[in-house]
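User: Run a structure prediction on this.
Assistant: Running it now.
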Amino acid sequence: IVHGGAGDIPAELHEAHLQGVRRAVEAGWELLETGGSAMDAVEVAITIMEDDEAFDAGRGSFLNADGQVELDAGFMDGTGLQVGAVASVQFIQNPIQLARTVMEKSKHVLLVGQGAQRFAHKMGFASCALTDLAVPREFERWQKTLFGKTSSAREVSNLPSDTVGCVALDRAGHIAAGTSTGGTPNKMPGRVGDVPMVGCGFYADDQIGGASSTGEGENIA
């Protein structure tokens, strides 16, 4: 199961969103059909959406009030109930991969900000430029907000919501779940919603099921 976020998606972005979700589903399903793991399927599907500028995750994310991109992601293995997450991380294009690495390569559950970036570099993740994440559409939106040209809360509330996610079940009966986001538009630096919080933004348990949330983070968390 894959989602590209809840919300009133503008008509001009409908097809891009549909195509992006389809690509993510197809890649994850192909992996599962060939015997791949649920964890790999979740990572592949979400990575595809993070690389697709139609979505508010990875490339294409909303900018914060300072004109920067801060990313959150969470990943869970339903077999061992292991969790990894990152929040407010910058200059990393695929935070879902970093969240999984936190789960598999550290003793921690959640890493934030500069600590998450230092861990990423230690694990061999390459840094990307702001322009690799912030597309012209979002720079324009941020500038309109900066100079008071947006209509305010009503316009913001009609934007696509702040997550993409995936839940997968593999042949062995294992479940994995993940969620990734660029957060809300013009958010305060350091703002974190539900996405990297286990039990709020994502959850997986082989004995129960899996979930990946989307919506207004402050209401979910």
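The beta strands are 2-3, 71-77, 82-89, 110-112, 164-169, 175-181, 202-205, 209-212.
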